[in-house]
Predict the 3D structure of the following.
Amino acid sequence: MVSPELILSAIIDGLTYSSMIYLAAIGLVIIFGLMDVFNLAQGAFFGLGAYLFVTFYYMTNNFLLSLLLTFLIGIVLGLLTERAIIRPVYGNPLAQLLLTMGLMTLLYTFMQLIWPTGLVFPETQNFLLSGYIQLADVRIRIYKFVLIVIGFVLFGTMSTLLSKTMIGIKLRAGTENRELATVFGVDISMLFTSAFTFGVALALLGGALVAPLTHATIELPVHFSLLAFAIPVVGGMKSYSGAFYASLLIGFVDRLVAYFIPQLGFAIDLIVMIVVLVVKPEGIFKR
Amino acid sequence: MRIGRFRKSTWVNDVASPILKVKDLHAYIGGFHILQGVNFEAEEYKLTAILGRNGVGKTTTLKTIMGIYKAARGEVFFKGENITNFPTHSIVKKGISFVPAEKNVFANLTVIENLKLAYNGPKEKFDDKLEMVMNLFPELKRFSSLLAGELSGGQQRMLALACGLVREHDLLILDEPSEGLSPAYVKNFYRLLRHYMLENRKTILLIEQNFAYAREITDYIYLMDKGVMVTGFPSEKIEENNHVIRRILGVSL
Amino acid sequence: MEKLRNYLLPNRFLGYLSLTILLAIPWLDRSLATGIPLTFVWALLALSYNIVLGFAGIPSFGHAVPFGVAAFVTAMLLKQGVPFLLSLIPAALISGAVYVGMGLPGYRVRGLYYGILTLAISEAIRATIEYSAQTTVAVTVSTIPEMASLEGLYLYLALFTIFLALSLVTGMMDIISTKRKRQKVLKTLIVILLFIFLAYSGYVIFSSSATFLQEVGSGLPYVRILRFVYPLNVYLVSLLSLYISYLLIKRIITSPLGSTFIAIRENPVRASVIGYNVFLHQLIAFFISGVFAGVAGSVYVACIPTIQPDVFATDKTFIAMTGAILGGLGTFVGPAIGGILAGFLRDYLSTITPALISLGFLSLQQLQLFPSLILGLLYIIVVLALPYGIYGTWLLKGWKLKRKIESIF
């Protein structure tokens, strides 16, 4: 009844999905960890990234260029958002929640307006992008492996950044104690702006990276918004490594349930999140 | 009766170059008027101490100088430059090193990382500076790769002080540095501090609740009460001012 | 007798007047009658949200849940032939209970986390119903019998008359109690103008009703009766539910219970130390808020006959939040005003789309989203610039403007 091919498929899909969730959520954790701002618009930026990327791809037919352009727009948007929306209400968590929620709705509406029917990523000649590989009896999309690799590479980069570089030390210090960081001479305001901008740009980049697989649809930001929100909850609100493990957990749980108990569907992720919130609010993986 | 409201010249240390000068500083915390017109100066290459009971506004004064709290009124001058309400990190860059009383190290960073973060000089010189500071605190050397949170309370204080020293500074500000140190060690600690200051031509400003070794260690003392500096005098004149000291602090020095 | 006197106080003039005008509107312009009831629903939703966020201070992001629950329950009961009012009451109560259920985790989870939790629950319910069910879940109610009744019409006429009379009386009392001659003259002028308008409205209302009833008497086909009466009754029901809910909410908040809510919101630690069971009161706030959100949900069924899982969508919560915040959290009238504004922008701005379509480059479907876009922008601007909302800021800072105007006269 449960064939090895099915399990192989499920595992690969689980890993892919985990990567995708990690891409959507890591920016959220960075921003919240440092600034105590829960960017409700993170998933919306993720979706926007997908749309922009596919649009650029249609225009340029160049994968890397489209990625780069999307990332650059992400930086601009991040700067704008931080300036216009986050900075004025710094220190007021309710206002931040409300504003980022407003931004989220605004972005959704904007996406629905400009691309009412979603955007399909075209078939390409590129082996990595659109090709398949045959493993055992299963036909698997190569790009899934690409995404898996990207996820792990990102995690590796984040870990190295945090532990080996000066920026990483400043980030960890700022996350732990903002006031003390300024006493140690860290320009916390600049750090905030950079972190927020980077977090948003990462969200757009993430959306761009998943687009070849998922295409750009209006369900994408809705779906990944909630998944992204679940990650800090499950992995520890400010834990960068926890975000990775939580992504793995949720990614696998979701896909396995989708394969074997499809009736539960999307709801399982939220159930996990609700359970964790109620049982261990600090997150399962928090140190 | 507040003597502090008198004209400054009666007790402020009128000196050619006070490295730090605070004029009529006011600050409100949570709606309360904590600093109600603080006036004092710190002379260069001298050790100035601010003494006062709990809650009079000593830490608030330091934090307002450092730009952590907002000065509602008044001014702070460092080396002649008006630094009132500047962002903290730029004040630090100008040459003030501040060691807070509590939560003064990063528990999630290692000892070395704490020191690395504190250090703001040229990269090449870091190892030498590190060496020098570690020699002052041999225990830190032993535990250098541990997370600061894994150190004992006393060791954390040592680390906090080490971070203060490793930072390039002309003025070192310490908030209750002897807190939590075993009494036997305190005298020695202060001696080391003074020695460090004289050897390296630095200025030190510190605050304490009471200060048994005041005469020996300090050059100038201010007494603080209810958000103002009540009086100030050179440490030689401790006996002369004993009545004020007893009134403000509750004990003799 | 004293208590009754209270209702005739001059300061109630504006309230009665607005109500009378609102009652008159659908008779003067039939086309408005169909869209406005929905706006009242949003206003009520915003009012109910104000209880949980504005008064009790709990950031709930799942306000769509009691709304949706009531909508479904009401729709299902109506389909079974249960009278409207009898469907509304249990639906509202069930919503209240469900909302309390959502409030329970608040014991362990605070602030931000709680907001995320409620958002998750709201989406979970929507997603579960929408994706997991085998077929699309939708409940359609063709006609609600009460809305087709003539009794509703009689009630409408009676209420109009009553409030017209009340407006007149309080208006006159306001003029009498005004001291300054200049103000007195101005007010008299305004009241006379208004009265002329209201008299005209009254004429329209009664004459068209008279004609209609005559036709009914001489055998009007059912369909035409329906067309005349149905939208009016729906309008009346939604307006009444908004007005009555508003009165009830005001009553509750100004009672000792309401003061307790505010005390808890301001300083929960202090409140618990004094002896109030903070958590219990929060649950009570959830219940009350849920009940009124449920009323909104029930009336929603009267406006939109097909209930789909999208009643649980976050944009319903968003309308409630926007309305409450735009209008003024923690005030009484504010959220209603904000809700009307939000609802209006959302549902009504589409009337300007024909003009934009003629510009030629966007489809009708896309243009219908413009109001939401504008609403979103407005929302952000208001949160940034007017932290107390439109009405709230008026309450706080508006007195300066009032003084100025008064000093001119």
The two ends of chain C are 35 Å apart (CA to CA).
